[in-house]
Design a protein that fits this description.
heterodimer, A: about 110 residues, mainly beta, six-stranded mixed sheet, 11 strands, about 55% strand, B: about 110 residues, four-stranded antiparallel sheet
Chain lengths: ~110, ~110
């Protein structure tokens, strides 16, 4: 099956700075990579996703990049705000339609 | 459109008991997946149901089981509870299976086994 690794496990940034979270995957056949944000007491919420036929996707302050050759993808958050503080998970789907999640990154934005 | 609804939000059970958790997917969604979330293990896949049939199963013992009804609502059951079963159980629904349909999560059921 797929194996997704996520780094770093914790990340602290000053408000207004950028944050980058990186994930690697093992199955070269994986072709869909969503990112989720989980706030305290809530379930993960989809914030952005990318498919393997695209190298980059942006949505306002959030962007995701994908390098299929190296089998890694990254989440970029620019101009961070305190409300960006949460746990972020990357995921990949394998050919059996099963999602595999990274172990999460706890992001703290310091005002 | 209402999101994924999980009931109850909190449960406290005693070791050896059994428990049933419920999940109502987003209207029109036909696939329901269950995940166990713990601080040390992250999100661990339990099983996926589509059209009332289990399509995928994670690496959990047979004490964990589930089912899906004709209206796509799903339940999961854990029998003979162990202390290690304490976790947040998340249900996620998707319109169809696969990479054309992202997962939408509920807020989970927090199970504490004493």
């Amino acid at each position: 099956g797929e194996n997704v690794e996520q780094h770093p496990s914790t990340l602290s940034v000053q408000e207004g700075d950028s944050a980058v979270i990186k994930c690697t995957y093992s199955d070269s056949a994986s072709n869909y990579f969503p990112w989720y944000k989980q706030e305290l007491g809530k379930g993960p919420q989809l914030i952005i996703d990318i498919r393997s036929n695209v190298g980059e996707k942006k949505d306002q302050r959030i962007a995701v990049t994908l390098n299929k050759t190296a089998k890694h993808f990254s989440l970029h958050i620019t101009e961070t705000q305190p409300e960006d503080s949460a746990v972020y998970f990357c995921a990949a789907i394998d050919t059996g339609n099963q999602f595999y999640f990274g172990t999460g990154t706890s992001l703290t934005v310091i005002p | 459109k209402a999101g994924v609804t999980q009931t109850p939000r909190y449960l406290i059970k005693t070791r050896g008991q059994q428990v049933t958790l419920s999940c109502s997917p987003i209207s029109g969604h036909r696939s329901v997946s269950w995940y166990q979330q713990t601080p040390g293990q992250g999100l661990q896949f339990l099983f996926e149901y589509f059209s009332e049939t289990q399509r995928n199963k994670g690496n959990f013992p047979g004490r964990f089981s589930g089912r899906q009804f004709s209206n796509s609502r799903s339940e999961m059951n854990v029998s003979t509870l162990e202390l290690g079963d304490s976790a947040l159980y998340l249900c996620a629904s998707s319109l169809v299976r696969g990479n054309n349909s992202p997962l939408h999560f509920g807020n989970g059921t927090r199970l504490t086994v004493t």
